[in-house]
Amino acid sequence: MNGNQIEALIGMLLTFGLLVLMILPSAIGTVHDWRTDRRIRQAQEARGERTAQKSSSRSTVPSTATWYADARRSKKFVSS
Fold it and tell me: How many CA atoms, within 13 angstroms, populate the side-chain half-sphere of residue 69?
């Protein structure tokens, strides 16, 4: 190996090392989340709970637009 090849090898290793250092925290966090989710599921199954989804995904709380429209209507009724 000559000097240019050694420099290129060192550059590639440093680049790869930096890439690993940047990706490692994200990968560790993802694995931690997976383990936590698995433990929660196991605990729910052990207690006999089922993870059923609600039949409706709609919120029962009125939206901001509904509150605003109701307030506008009530002001019109009071002022007339």
Answer: 5
